[in-house]
Amino acid sequence: MSAFEKPQIIAHIQKGLGYTVFDCKWVPCSAKFVTMGNFARGTGVVQLYEIQHGDLTLLREIEKAKPIKCGTFGATSLQQRYLATGDFAGNLHIWNLEAPEIPVYSVKGHKEIINTIDGVGGLGIGEGAPEIVTGSRDGNAYNQEERVVCAGYDNGDIKLFDLRNMSLRWETNIKNGVCSLEFDRKDISMNKLVATSLEGKFHVFDMRTQHPTKGFASVSEKAHKSTVWQVRHLPQNRELFLTAGGAGGLHLWKYEYPTQRSKKDSEGVEMGVAGSVSLLQNVTLSSQPISSLDWSPDKRGLCICSSFDQTVRVLIITKLHKI
After folding, report:
1. Does residue 200 sit in helix, strand or coil?
2. Low-confidence ranges of the chain (pLDDT < 50)
3. Are the CB atoms for 301 and 316 separated by under 8 Å?
């Protein structure tokens, strides 16, 4: 692929914010997004922005008692578009952004900070009841149509829990603390799982074939010179994904499937075959770690990210339809 054919990562809009941003999420079916974090005075903040004429307009600012670490729209309906958040005191709140004074729902989920949150069953994606999963002190957790949750831990463990019979279905260790986990899609049978870690590595697991002793096949890649904080798959093409690094860099990757995704071992038992990953483009956006990343579910190539230089950036990534 020549330099002219490669996707380009363009910082379309960047805006400095007066607080530390931990997470940002697109509001479904809109040109709006929310940023979440904490003010220097120790309170939490949610801001709602809209892209208008190539600039950002602040529509609403909501201040809360505790710093807000993470949020998701994954378990809400398209009609309501309620935001679920996790804060530093272990509280899970669900907010109506039109009337945010009092949460629609509130529960004390953990004793300590909620590091990660995800939802499934909302937005018309997948089947089954809307569910929210939170993780405290343990990397990321993701819900699947098959009702499994995958959790990553700071000792490098990755564990897959089956929610139907509340059992541990699979576990492995990637030898470095897990920072982020994501299935490539929530509304299909388990296909791929990407795990990112400290010291710049990420692993892609093929989740279609589970061997009784060897587990799932995987490929690993040394991506960044520092911690890989986030991974996000492109909603419109699950073979493409972005990783965000501790040195302020973004890397765009493509996963290539092998000619055969499974083979029989010496005893005739099916085992998975890992594919390969190739780097399509990379860019350094900031001198500080990129703390969160979110693709627009509605517009291919539109993306937002936040970093610890207290900045939110709207990115345009070109030529994705040609890959």
Report:
1. helix
2. 138, 140-144
3. yes
Per-position b or e across 100-121, b if 16+ CB within 10 A of its CB: beebeeeeebbeebbbbbbbbb
| Dist. CA 195–CA 175, nearest whole Å | 12
Return phi, psi of residue 224, to 5°. Answer: -125, 165
CA dihedral 91, 94, 98, 101 (to 10 degrees): -40
Strand partners, 50: 32, 57
Query: Residue 125's pLDDT is what?
Result: 64
Spatial distance between the Cα atoms of 323 and 148, rounded to a whole number of angstroms: 30
Do the bridges between strand 68-72 and strand 55-64 make them parallel or antiparallel, or are there none, so unpaired? unpaired
What is the arrangement of strands in the sheet containing 91-95, beginning at the earlier edge strand?
68-72, 83-87, 91-95, 105-108
Q: Provide the token pair at 141.
A: 């957790």
Count how many Cα atoms sit within 13 Å of the Cα of residue 121 in the half-sphere of its side chain. 12
- Which amino acid, one-letter code, is at 197? S
31 phi, psi to nearest 5 deg: -100, 25
Gap between the Cα atoms of 285 and 251, Å rounded: 11
Are residues 287 and 308 in contact, defined by beta-carbon separation less than 8 angstroms? no
Predicted local distance difference test score (pLDDT) of residue 139: 53
Cα–Cα distance for residue pair 203/195, rounded to 1 Å = 5
pTM of the model: 0.92
Q: Residue 243: what pLDDT? A: 96
The two three-digit tokens of residue 175, written as one number: 């030898």
Residue 138's pLDDT is: 45
